[in-house]
């Protein structure tokens, strides 16, 4: 990876990625089919517990959206 990566709307630098990794340990780059890129982290236990309540209600899409929004770190404005 280059020292910086232009992801369209937001320039995410390698320094920013390193800072996220230092804070969250697990940081993932998600390239989307549309050409956009976003960075997410692993959810915490509390975040998973909250999302599980949505699953229990049968709100599967809301479960995924909730986790994604909470774990989104940066990248393109998607």
Strand content: 25-35%
Largest sheet: 3 strands, antiparallel
Strand arrangement in the largest pleated sheet: 3-4-5
Runs in which pLDDT lies below 50 for 5 or more consecutive residues are: none
Distance between the termini: 22 Å
How many helices?
3
Mean pLDDT: 85
| N-to-C SSE string, H for helix and E for strand | EEHEEHHE
Return the structural class: alpha+beta
Spatial extent as radius of gyration: 14 Å
Say how many strands there are.
5
Shape: flat
Residues in helix, %: 40-55%
Topology:
Layout: E1 4-6, E2 11-13, H1 14-24, E3 27-31, E4 37-41, H2 45-56, H3 60-71, E5 72-75
Antiparallel strand pairs: 1-2, 3-4, 4-5
Helix pairs in contact: 2-3
Summarize the structure.
The chain is an alpha+beta fold. It is 45% helix and 26% strand. The strands form two sheets. It has a three-stranded antiparallel beta sheet. Strands 1-2 form a two-stranded antiparallel ribbon.
